[in-house]
Amino acid sequence: MSSKVISRNKLLYFSVVLLLSLFDVATVFSAQDSIKPPVWIGIYVAAGKVGLKWTSATGAIRYKIYRSISSGGHYKLIAATTDDSYIDPSVRIGETYYYVLKSVGAGNKESDYSEERYIKISVAKATVPVQPPEWVGALIGRRRIRLAWDPSASPDVLAYNVYRSTDPNKGFQLIGSTQDTNLTDTDIREGETYYYALSALDKNFRETRLGKVQTVLYAPPQETPGAVKTGAPEMPPRIIPEKLTVRRTRRVGFILRWKDRRPLFSPTDVVLGPDGKIYVSDTGDSMIQIFKPGGAFIRSIGEYGIKPGQFEKLLGVDVDRDGEVLAVDAYTGTIQKFDKKGRLIMYKKMLEDGKAIAVDLGRKKPITEFGIIKGLFAPDGRLYIIDNFNDCVEIYSSTGQYIKTFGGKGRQDGKFLSPTFAIFGKNGHLYISDCMNARVQVFDKDGHFLWKFGGYGNIAGTFGRPKGICIDKSGNIYVSDSMSNAIQVFDKHGRFRYALANERGKQIDMATPNGIAIDRNKRIYIVEKLVNRIQIRQVE
User: For residue 324, what are the CA distances in angstroms to 272, 288, 315, 457?
Assistant: First the structure.
């Protein structure tokens, strides 16, 4: 064989080896390039520190935590960890911090930045100890069991853990963790009895003991309705009509950001002003954000703090026919009014009326704590305050003079278990979503019970967790349900008419709808609290 042939063969051999080596290197780099940033679970404040929590990324051997005091950049590396959580102790009260994460894989290959999350550091408050949650009940569906429980009274709860066993006394295994107050179990078999228990995880990632056991026999929905909380009315069987009456809606868009493209942070409520402007209570930012009908940002009202004109825990918002704005602060128990230009014109501490409120509720000790979800302007100018913590409604004059309180804790007509949102109808009646009683109650302007509709269940016309409520120009009543992620529509007598659906006639993709509002053209605005946006849909 000639030397030229040998040289050619050697050249071919080395070329193949080189190509294979390059292929191996490219494969390694491809695998490293594919490492993804962590996905956030949450960011929380506890004991003057910030707790960060994320899901593990495939291929990651550690994580880097970056922080900035401004959004969108200038991040500084503050820590690295092999865990999927981190406690940042070096924070100051009143400051806003922005965090991003990176995954680090083999060979120190880093991912891109994760999504940005931010949080304000508020003044530390006395907290309620974290305890295991209390069961609400279980809904049995086709190939699923949907579990629900009461939210914790402690603001330090990070998440809830759900455990299951086939023995009521042992063998409980974790089947899910969620920040919501419900979870659906689909890994089930017909005829099997399951035992569920709950624990709570605090913001320092410490877990409580397991709470009471919930027993559920999974059987065909037509035969056995399932278990409910002791003392609660029996759960109705699941009856799904062959053809559920729905009204299609078309998605128009979203409201996601306000000034300088800063995102909404845990919005709670939405109302429409007399000129069509959109008012959003941006709870995480302690501000009322105002938008044009098309969604363009106009301005903000308020800021974080405990002084007049500031909010520590802003929740509900309302606007009257003159453009005055009513806002309530759940933590400080204050009522504030602003004129149409955003200037503070009234500041009221409800603590001043603690004795009078206690007398009206039949209590001996003055009311010192409030959980105000919503404030409303009545047609006559009076102010109605929905107090979730005390399960009641406080009425004030337009200038903040205390008038009376009605309601109180209970399941009877006229009583409440965690009232949330409310609205006045054109008839002057007050419609209140009585969340944990799973119903809407209707009162006259003096707080006398008139009638109710709904009830706990999973058939058309019943609720799991009714929240937002609004009324269109025809008198139809819209109620959002954060448990079933649905919006049902009732006529003026409380009779079910239809459920809102998407363009294909299927369930709308929503994440825990809260406050809702509807304009004269049947464009509905839906607060999706957990995904930080307002979804806008046109009812066809």
Answer: 12, 13, 17, 38
**CB-CB contact of 336 with 383 (8 Å):** no
pLDDT cut 70: percent of the chain above it: 87
The type of residue at 518 is I
Order the strands of the 267-272 sheet from edge to edge: 267-272, 278-282, 287-291, 297-301
User: b/e string for 281-319 if b means 16 or more Cβ within 10 A?
Assistant: bbbbbbbbbbbeeebebeebbbebeeeeebbbbbbbbbb
Distance between CA atoms of residues 62 and 84, nearest Å: 9
- 232 DSSP 8-state letter: S
Q: What type of residue is 512?
A: T
Rounded-to-integer distance, Cα 468 and Cα 512, Å: 11
Average pLDDT score, the chain: 84
DSSP assignment string, 115-128: --EEEE-PPP---P
Angstrom distance (rounded) from CA 160 to CA 178: 5
pLDDT per residue as tens digits for the range 252-263: 999 998 888 888
Q: Other C-beta atoms within 10 Å of 477: how many? A: 23
Using alpha carbons only, give the angle 415, 417, 419 rounded to the nearest 5 degrees.
90
Closest listed residue to residue 479, CA positions, set 519, 435, 444: 435
Positive or negative: CA dihedral 163, 166, 169, 170: negative
Lowest mean pLDDT among 29-38, 103-112, 330-339: 29-38
- Using CA atoms, how far apart are residues 120 and 310, in angstroms rounded to an integer? 14
pLDDT band at 410 (very low <50, low <70, confident <90, very high): very high
3-state secondary structure (DSSP) of residue 153: coil
Spatial separation of the C-alpha atoms in residues 469 and 444, rounded to whole Å = 17
- What's the rounded Cα separation, in Å, for the pair 273 and 377? 12
* Residue 16, phi then psi, degrees to nearest 5: -65, -45
**Region for residue 447 given its phi and psi (left: phi exceeds 0; alpha: psi -120 to 50; beta: otherwise):** left
- Return the higher-pLDDT residue of 143 and 106: 106
* Two structure tokens written together for 141: 């569906």
Query: How many whole angstroms separate alpha carbon 252 and alpha carbon 525?
Result: 10
Contact 466, 513 (CB under 8 A): no
Q: How many CA atoms lie within 13 A of 41 on its CB side?
A: 20
Give residues with Cβ within 8 angstroms of 70, minimum separation 6: 98
The structure tokens listed for 243 are: 């053809």
Q: How far apart are CA 470 and CA 515, in angstroms?
A: 9
One-letter identity of residue 501: A
How many CB atoms are closer than 10 A to CB 510? 22
Residue 304 main-chain phi, psi, to 5 deg: -70, 140
Distance of CA 411 to the CA centre of its chain: 24
Q: Identify which of 234, 199, 228, 231 has the alpha carbon closest to the alpha carbon of residue 215.
A: 228
Residue pointed to by tokens 């209140």: 432
